[in-house]
Write a structure and sequence with these properties.
The strands form four sheets. The protein has a six-stranded antiparallel β-barrel with strand order 2-11-14-13-12-15. Strands 1, 16, 17, 18 and 21 form a five-stranded antiparallel sheet that branches. It has a four-stranded antiparallel sheet with strand order 3-10-8-5, with no helix packed on it. The chain contains three helices and 21 strands. The protein is an alpha+beta fold. The longest helix is centred in the first third of the chain and has 32 residues. The N terminus is likely disordered. The protein has four domains: 78 residues, conserved putative lor/sdh protein from methanococcus maripaludis s2 fold; 88 residues, Efflux pump adaptor protein, beta barrel domain (Elongation Factor Tu (Ef-tu), domain 3), CATH 2.40.30; 70 residues, OB fold (Dihydrolipoamide Acetyltransferase, E2P), CATH 2.40.50.100; 73 residues, Orthogonal Bundle (Helix Hairpins), CATH 1.10.287.
């Protein structure tokens, strides 16, 4: 009997001893690591204030120097037989641009031939009159009339010769066709005709082609009158071209216009840049950056900034290792090769650990 009671008491003690162990296991809190956000794919960096140069951005366009732009007009009315250039093509001085067939050329040649005949006739008459004057058969006044007629004939011959040269051909050529040649070396900006079209003379004519020398180009911008204090002739500027994001050209302000546009209240500003490889093309967009005073600013990679509508924010890692989303005010964007940086005007302090990649993974989802 006593042995049976000992066995029962032992089982009871074992059961009671097991109960506290089960209760402790069910009420234990989860480990602290489980409450931390996942950090896979997240990169951070320490934000430091850097010196940034403030600048004024002036929208601009690239144009050819007007003094090195030539419009080729037809020298006479006629039919365009051939056009030998295309827009964007580079030509050398003297290259044939087009061939024109014109009755005006034939008329000019006929005038020249008539003038040559009149010169021969006037020369012979003057020679004969000189002999008659020596033998006192011809009066001095009659001889003077012959001399005047001879001078007039020579003048008319020279006029007809100059007319032929203006039309672009030689007096020894019998063709009614003339080759129109490039007066300068440059690039063809535009053409205004095609083979087979009829061309007018210089009056109300359309240029057959426009050629520009773009070894030097103008960067022409519009600066507001409120910004004139920051722009002075001779001021060093930087020119950026959207077509070449990595290209930064240095130049100086060569001229500021005197006439204000009444509609936009802007003045024209001009920067002249060398363009030996013709990298810069006419009518390209550009930006003239006028540097100002240096200032300290926090600059972070553009991947650190989260855009949500018109609001911007970044994630900052706090002392406990968690991430706080903090609103920020951003400024200018800087291109540094393959990396694009953004200036943060407020919201980040020097020394903050900023999430530079993977910030989108930390944004709370709906219902959190």
């Amino acid at each position: 009997m006593k042995a049976r009671m000992k066995t029962t008491d032992s089982l009871l003690l074992l059961t009671i001893a097991a109960l506290p162990l089960t209760a402790c296991k069910s009420s234990a809190p989860p480990p602290a690591e489980a409450t931390q956000p996942a950090t896979a794919g997240i990169e951070t960096a320490i934000a430091h204030a850097q010196q940034s140069t403030d600048y004024l951005e002036i929208p601009a366009r690239i144009s050819a120097d007007p003094s090195h732009v030539v419009h080729i007009f037809p020298p006479a009315s006629g039919r365009m037989l051939s056009l030998r250039v295309l827009p964007g093509q580079e030509v050398k001085k003297g290259d044939a641009v087009a061939t024109l067939q014109s009755s005006d050329i034939a008329a000019a040649r006929a005038d020249y031939e008539k003038a040559k005949i009149e010169v021969l006739r006037a020369d012979r008459a003057l020679t004969r009159g000189k002999l008659l004057l020596q033998h006192e058969v011809l009066s001095q006044s009659d001889y003077d009339d012959l001399d005047a007629a001879d001078r007039t004939a020579h003048s008319e011959l020279e006029r007809s010769r100059q007319r032929i040269h203006e039309l672009g051909f030689s007096e020894d050529n019998n063709s009614d066709e003339v080759a129109l040649r490039a007066p300068i070396s440059g690039v063809v900006l535009d053409i205004g005709s095609a083979a087979g079209e009829m061309q007018r003379s210089l009056d109300n004519a359309t240029p057959i082609a426009t050629i520009a020398n773009i070894d030097f180009v103008w960067i022409v911008g519009d600066v507001f009158e409120r910004d004139l204090a920051s722009v002075k002739p001779g001021r060093e500027v930087e020119v950026r071209v959207p077509a070449y994001p990595d290209l930064a050209l240095k130049g100086r302000v060569t001229n500021i216009g005197d006439a204000i546009d009444p509609n936009t209240h802007t003045l024209k500003i001009r920067v002249v840049l060398p363009n030996p490889k013709h990298t810069l093309k006419a009518d390209m967009f550009a930006t003239i950056r006028v540097p100002g005073a240096a200032r300290n600013a926090v600059i972070v990679p553009s991947t650190a900034v989260i855009h949500e509508g018109d609001k911007t924010s970044v994630f900052i890692q706090n002392a406990s290792g968690k991430y706080d989303q903090r609103p920020v005010t951003i400024g200018r964007t800087f291109d540094s090769g393959a990396v694009k940086n953004i200036e943060v005007l407020s919201g980040i302090n020097d020394g903050d650990k900023v999430v530079t990649a993977g910030g989108a993974l930390l944004r709370p989802t709906n219902g959190d």
